[in-house]
Amino acid sequence: MKIVPGKKVFCSYAFTGQNPREVEARMAAIVKVLEQAGARVYCNLYDERTDGFTNPEDYLDLALDELTGYDYVLAVKVPGISVGQVAEMTVARRLSIPIIFAERADGAGDSYLPRLAQEVFAWSDQDDLLAKIRQLV
Q1: If you write DSSP's letter for every residue of 59-101 in order, what string do you get?
Q2: Which long-range contacts (CB under 8 A, 24 or more apart) does 117-123 make?
Q3: For residues 103 and 121, is the Cβ–Cβ distance under 8 A?
Q4: pLDDT tens per residue across all 137 residues of the chain
Q5: Fewer CB under 10 Å: which end of the chain, C or N?
Q6: What is the C-alpha separation between 30 and 24, in angstroms, rounded?
């Protein structure tokens, strides 16, 4: 699957229980790669509407509302289960939005989520993840 320049990509990722600095650095690099390739990217880390959010439900409600206008979902999976990410992928599937599932290799096989995706790949570190995303654009 190729991400067409000009199309909109919704980034789905786990935050709760993760190292915030690692997540922020990873997502900043992903957004940069996608935008440099001409994609229009949504990542709630950069959405001012989240300022002041304190409940995970607030983030989830906004994400699910936002998701409806996107052409692709890029789900970046780390070990463990993110309830928000499961919800985003389920809604994307219901809306027939293609899902690209990037699963960190050390957590591969810990869920059924890859079966919801049209494109699946494993990544070992951030450099590997970014290289594989570059192949999609």
Answers
A1: HHHHHHHHHTT-SEEEEEE-SS--HHHHHHHHHHHHTT--EEE
A2: 117/75, 117/89, 118/1, 119/1
A3: yes
A4: 889 899 999 999 988 888 999 999 999 999 999 999 999 999 999 999 999 998 889 999 999 999 998 999 999 999 888 889 999 999 999 999 999 999 999 877 777 889 999 999 999 999 999 999 999 99
A5: N
A6: 10
Q: Is the dihedral of CA 136, 120, 20, 60 positive or negative?
A: positive
The amino acid at residue 50 is T
CA-based torsion, 15, 22, 10, 111: positive or negative? negative
Place of tokens 């289960």: 81
Whole-number Å distance between alpha carbons of 63 and 87? 10
